[in-house]
């Protein structure tokens, strides 16, 4: 593959990327061009497609012309033939999710075109390296857990909480809990800035991904617990909103 690297170590915190020959139509038989965005250990990557026009030859975008996204990479910031991808894009701008985030310091996407000639112009977008601390849950992680948190008002009276890997896609088979513990004279107020979960066929009770809310009193203290469960088969976690009360 031909590789184009955008690295924050050169002082470039944001910039622009384009497909070959943009805005004129790209060539056929582009085997592989890798767009590689690498930040430091305290950063994540955001890419945003402002223009997008790839010839679509099938609904799944697996064959033909496509952009293949790798959002959850290790510290080596590399991909090979067996690296799992997160999504594949093709078609028009209205067909795709425009914004994508990495879960770590690197994001890579692959551009490929097949033998069919078209007048499609490709893509243009922007990238930005973000401080990942702004997406960290402001609570205590329970020992020996991955995503169970306790937020106590004796430590702080307000803060933020996030699902795993936010703002990137959350992992499959996740089950997380968020406990908000106030004093006897306090109540807990939660404001969700964004909820994007895969929706089930019917009600939220049968949804594969959902948020469950529990209210209780423990020794006269106000406790509110939120749990998030994620199904085994989840691939794209941002199809619709679903919340169970």
Automatic annotation (TrEMBL):
Pfam families: CUB
Gene3D superfamilies reported for this sequence: Spermadhesin, CUB domain
Methyltransferase recorded as keyword: no
SUPFAM superfamilies found in the cross-reference section: Spermadhesin, CUB domain
Gene Ontology cellular component list: plasma membrane
Residue ranges occupied by any CUB domain in the UniProt entry: 1-130, 147-204
Record-given protein name: Suppressor of lurcher protein 1-like
Naturally occurring in which organism (per UniProt): Tropilaelaps mercedesae
């Amino acid at each position: 593959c031909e590789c184009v690297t955008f690295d924050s170590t050169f002082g470039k915190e944001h910039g622009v990327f384009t497909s070959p020959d943009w805005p004129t139509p790209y060539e056929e038989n582009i085997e592989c061009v890798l767009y590689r965005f690498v930040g430091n250990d305290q950063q994540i990557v955001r890419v945003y497609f402002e223009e997008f026009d790839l010839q679509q030859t099938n609904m799944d975008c697996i064959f033909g012309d496509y952009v293949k996204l790798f959002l959850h990479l290790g510290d080596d910031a590399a991909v090979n033939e067996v690296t799992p991808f997160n999504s594949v894009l093709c078609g028009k701008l209205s067909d795709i999710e425009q914004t994508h985030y990495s879960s770590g310091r690197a994001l890579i996407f692959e551009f490929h075109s097949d033998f069919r000639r078209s007048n499609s112009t490709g893509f243009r977008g922007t990238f930005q390296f973000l401080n990942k601390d702004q997406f960290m849950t402001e609570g205590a992680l329970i020992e020996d857990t991955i995503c169970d948190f306790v937020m106590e008002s004796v430590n702080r009276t307000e803060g933020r909480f996030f699902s795993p890997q936010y703002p990137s896609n959350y992992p499959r088979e996740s089950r997380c809990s968020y406990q908000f513990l106030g004093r006897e004279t306090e109540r807990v107020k939660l404001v969700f800035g964004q909820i994007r979960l895969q929706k089930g066929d019917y009600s939220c009770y049968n949804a594969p991904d959902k948020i469950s809310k529990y209210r209780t009193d423990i020794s006269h203290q106000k406790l509110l617990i939120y749990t998030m469960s994620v199904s085994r088969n989840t691939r794209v976690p941002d199809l619709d909103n679903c919340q169970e009360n």
